[in-house]
């Protein structure tokens, strides 16, 4: 079945399309399944809804949260998710994805303390509980633009991205610098704990530096080639971070289990797999992370810059995918389920749910009831419908008029160089930006 836009008036219609695609998803009408708490590292996550890390590109030049950053997290906090996965925050200036990406430092740490305090106090006041808040620590690697123009730092040259114009060899990160970045990751985690975050995500997804190293089959030295070398940076970061923080500070990761690029340029597949996921290495890596004491993982796939249909199936985007969007949703959720079922003692967050719109909470309840995930992750949905968690958990309902419609406009604003948000549901703020940066170009 080829690509088509979302048009389902009932769950039965959607389920029939899934059947025609040769797959299925669970569905449960008991939304109380989303309201049960979960313990992680001695901390209580009040419900099963996670707001995923959605970068706003609206910080200050020094890396502090800006006015729109504060507005976004106040809306998220009022919305009542049990866990707020705070957006990508650079571990160093060179690793910022844009000049407005957040960057936690000794100099601006009080600004971060203020926003974390606001998030927790707002949610406590509005919903009667304090959310768990995790900071995503990142180095943007080949997507680094700290001064507004590309200044890539890559693990290896990749013709899928670079074509006939490879990035110069002096931009390939050295083994010595990678060891320095491990220490900077630990420093960032220690600062995150100091300002009140409950945990840190060692970001390893969407082809940023840590993720790219997982597929560095062709790289020489200590960080490329063998599985042990390709995972060295990630595991060293985990160990150094855990040594730098207290024992009850959550150390986790948003992890790509499948890149969607042919071997030897993609993680989660092997030679001859022809873009079919192979979970051998991802499952091995996750077992090693569990053995290092990691309790929580946030699972994703793909690359939002090159194959965004893999990680965020859409109705509107930069191209027409060669598959039905529900194929992408089912792939994400069913492979996530493999992880949850192989490692039932870990707490797993699934992704790709926003495309399901009003059916997302019921699929989420089914996933939890079938032990296919621990939490349901909402990304674009949180932009569009920040009260999603409150409505689902407290009121056993979902407002169809507020759900994300997967139109891709939030991504279009970001790619155009502005600050992303929901153009459709938060139009007072973001429609003028869309017109300025996208429509008028």
How would you summarize the topology of this molecule?
Blueprint: H1 11-20, E1 38-40, E2 43-45, E3 49-51, H2 67-79, E4 83-90, E5 102-103, H3 109-127, E6 132-138, H4 159-162, H5 175-195, E7 199-202, H6 209-213, H7 227-230, H8 232-244, E8 250-256, H9 280-291, E9 296-300, H10 308-311, H11 325-342, E10 347-350, H12 360-369, E11 375-378, H13 380-384, H14 388-395, H15 409-415, H16 427-439
Parallel strand pairs: 3-4, 3-11, 4-5, 4-6, 6-7, 7-8, 8-9, 9-10, 10-11
Antiparallel strand pairs: 1-2
Helix pairs in contact: 2-3, 3-5, 5-8, 15-16
How many beta-strand segments?
11
Give the CA-CA distance, first to last residue.
35 Å
Measured as a percent range, the helix fraction is 25-40%
Shape: globular
User: Beta fraction of the residues?
Assistant: 5-15%
Low-pLDDT stretches are none
The radius of gyration computed from the alpha-carbon positions, rounded to a whole number of angstroms, is: 20 Å
The average pLDDT score comes to 97
What is the fold-level CATH name, i.e. the topology of the largest domain?
A: TIM Barrel
What features would you describe in this structure?
The chain is of the alpha/beta class and 441 residues long. It folds into two domains: 11-407, TIM Barrel, CATH 3.20.20.70; 408-441, no CATH class. It contains 16 helices and eleven strands. The strands form two sheets. Strands 3-4-6-7-8-9-10-11 form an eight-stranded parallel beta barrel, surrounded by five helices. The radius of gyration is 20 Å and the shape is globular.
């Amino acid at each position: 079945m080829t690509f088509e836009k979302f048009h389902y008036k009932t769950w039965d219609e959607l389920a029939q399309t899934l059947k025609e695609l040769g797959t299925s998803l669970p569905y449960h009408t008991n939304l109380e399944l989303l309201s049960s708490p979960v313990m992680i590292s001695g901390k209580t996550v009040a419900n099963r809804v996670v707001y995923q890390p959605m970068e706003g590109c609206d910080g200050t030049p020094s890396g502090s949260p800006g006015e729109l950053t504060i507005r976004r997290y106040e809306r998220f906090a009022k919305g009542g998710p049990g866990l707020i996965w705070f957006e990508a925050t650079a571990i160093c200036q060179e690793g910022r994805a844009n000049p407005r990406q957040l960057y936690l430092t000794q100099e601006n740490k009080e600004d971060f303390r203020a926003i974390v305090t606001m998030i927790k106090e707002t949610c406590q006041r509005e919903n009667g509980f304090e959310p768990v808040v995790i900071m995503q620590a990142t180095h943007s690697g080949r997507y680094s633009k700290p001064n507004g123009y590309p200044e890539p730092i890559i693990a290896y040259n990749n013709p899928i991205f670079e074509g006939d114009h490879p990035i110069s060899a002096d931009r390939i990160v050295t083994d010595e610098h990678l060891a320095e970045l491990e220490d900077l990751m630990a420093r960032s985690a220690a600062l995150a704990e100091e300002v009140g975050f409950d945990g840190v995500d060692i970001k390893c997804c969407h082809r940023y530096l840590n993720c790219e190293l997982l597929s560095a089959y062709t790289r020489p030295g200590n960080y490329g080639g063998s599985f042990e070398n390709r995972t060295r940076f990630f595991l060293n970061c985990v160990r150094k971070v855990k040594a730098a923080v207290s024992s009850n500070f959550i150390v986790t990761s948003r992890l790509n289990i499948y890149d969607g690029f042919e071997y030897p340029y993609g993680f989660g597949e092997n030679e001859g797999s022809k873009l079919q996921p192979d979970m051998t290495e991802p499952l091995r890596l996750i077992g090693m992370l569990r053995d290092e004491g990691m309790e929580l993982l946030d699972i994703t796939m793909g690359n939002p810059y090159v194959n965004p249909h893999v990680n965020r199936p859409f109705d509107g985007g930069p191209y027409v995918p060669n598959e039905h969007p529900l194929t992408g949703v089912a792939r994400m959720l069913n492979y996530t389920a493999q992880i949850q079922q192989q490692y039932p003692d870990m707490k797993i967050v699934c992704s790709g749910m926003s495309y399901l719109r009003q059916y997302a909470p019921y699929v989420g309840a089914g996933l939890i009831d079938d032990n296919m995930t621990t939490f349901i992750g909402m990304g674009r949905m949180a932009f569009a419908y920040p009260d999603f968690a409150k409505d689902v958990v407290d009121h056993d309902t979902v407002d169809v008029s507020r759900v994300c419609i997967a139109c891709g406009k939030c991504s279009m604003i970001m790619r155009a160089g502005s600050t992303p948000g929901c153009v459709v549901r938060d139009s007072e703020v973001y429609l003028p930006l869309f017109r300025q940066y996208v429509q008028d170009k």
